[in-house]
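Consider a protein example.
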Amino acid sequence: MNYRRLGDAGMKVSVVALGGWINYGEGKVAAAVARQVVERAYERGINFFDLADIYGKGEAELQMGEVLRQFPRHTLVISSKVFWPMSDDVNDRGLSRKHIFESIDKSLKRLGTDYVDIYFCHRPDPETPIEETARAMNDLVRMGKVLYWGTSEWSGAEIVAAHAICERYGWARPQSEQPQYSMIWRTRVEQEIMPVTRPRGIGLVVWSPLAMGLLTGKYDGGIPTDSRFAREDWARERFLTEANIERVRRLKPIAEHLGVSRARLALAWALRSPAVSSVIIGATRPEQVDENIGAAELELSAETLDAIEQALA
């Protein structure tokens, strides 16, 4: 496993992180198998485990927290997120100071830890001033409940505004942004996000680097009945087009020439950028962890990157 700094922070994260969205809390993977996935990830050098309160409405934090407690806390980088409604209560949502302060205590209790290493604002909140959110996050850092805070799916302008406010008042500034990024979902990140995050020392932790599994090649011949696209209409509608399927097919000979899977190729491609600190995988079997972490040490030559660009064109 290789490790990178979270932007310009001193803390290092494994370049491949394990996410808790698909394997915990929502009944998509049996608890015993999910435990094996987490344990395999830790054994193979993954130190970064990404969660959110909304995953399974708290169940993901509860279940993964129980597994992670068997490992020394200083060897783990645990992140969680706040924003989405956790109940019907009018204040149990968003990025207000009230919701942030109440949510972090609930997340810490579920995780069974005194602090999270990274606390992400899961989406921007148009109803709360950025200054209120940034100040609340700074206070959590001062209190020791959060070591670093970040944003997720914020616009470039919102990230710049948050960073500027923190610089002005001497507050802990956002240290990470978590956007969706992959070979077929890249334009916004490359044109809007990277140009503002990298100069400010903000590291990207990208989600869905395999485009919900499309980039693995499993959909080359159709939609398997037990696949994610068969279960989730929104994911299928977002990614599954004839053009994208053809792009993924054209990646196959490139991966075969390197002797790797298309999944490993796609992850290594995302990691080619120094702006990216880590890519989040959503393994549902221990074997997927073994396969995906191979991307950590796969360096793509300029010739290979050119071939990939031609395949994706």
User: Anything to note?
Assistant: DSSP finds twelve helices and ten strands in the chain. The mean pLDDT is 93.
